[in-house]
Amino acid sequence: MAEVLYPTHPLETWAPALAELSREAAGLVVTPEPPVAAVDVRLEAPGPGADAFGRALGTALPLVPNTWTHTTDGQLIWLGPDEWLVTAEDSAGHELERELGWIVSAYDGAAVDVSAQRTGIRLRGARARDLLSFGCSLDLRSSAFPSGSAAQTALGQTAVLLLALGEQDLRLFVRPSFAGYLAEWILDAAQEYRPAG
């Protein structure tokens, strides 16, 4: 009989250390996030296709560079002049791809399931932005990177997609193969926030 393989979270090994950090470091909570469906959409915008796409998601398409907006069960993130990432917590990636592909294909657009391409990490607390500033060249002050901002950038020598969910609430998306490296980087960078001794 064949053995059944069950998927594991890319940060399963680091989850206990991140939980310990969150207990010990005042003003910092770091949490691996559950997997979400993610679909990359290419579509000419503005135009009727963008309007139809936005209506299907229950929100206007973000056309301002480096921004994101809420959808009914996830986020719609601007990646480029004709590219967006759609995340959804309550859908399967292949189903979301089929649904969005049906809409955007009528306007010469494309939708591709990229759910396996990113792992989410959430950083909350008064020190979240300070911690990320140790390894990111962006100005992460809330006045320069306010809620609703998004950026494709490097953090500790790995590529991430960074979202500002709130003043003290940030989400990172990183490739699963680099998730462990990023967790180690966060644990190392946060050492100064742990109590001495």
Q: What report would you give on this structure?
A:
This is Sarcosine oxidase subunit gamma. It comes from Amycolatopsis ultiminotia. It holds the Pfam family SoxG. InterPro entries: SoxG, TrmE/GcvT-like. With 197 residues, the chain is α+β, with helices and mostly antiparallel strands. It folds into two domains: 15-34 and 117-191, Gyrase A, domain 2, CATH 3.30.1360; 37-116, Heterotetrameric sarcosine oxidase (Alpha-Beta Plaits, 2-Layer Sandwich). It is 26% helix and 29% strand. The protein is built from five helices and ten strands, in the order αββαβββαββαβββα. It has helices spanning 15-24, 48-57, 93-104, 128-133, 176-189; strands at 29-32, 37-42, 68-70, 74-80, 83-88, 110-113, 119-124, 150-155, 158-166, 169-174. The strands form two sheets. It has a five-stranded antiparallel β-sheet with strand order 1-7-10-9-8. A five-stranded antiparallel β-sheet has the order 3-4-5-2-6. β3 (68-70) and β4 form a beta hairpin. The longest helix is centred in the C-terminal third of the chain and has 14 residues, at 176-189. The N and C termini lie far apart (52 Å). The model has no long low-confidence stretch (mean pLDDT 92).
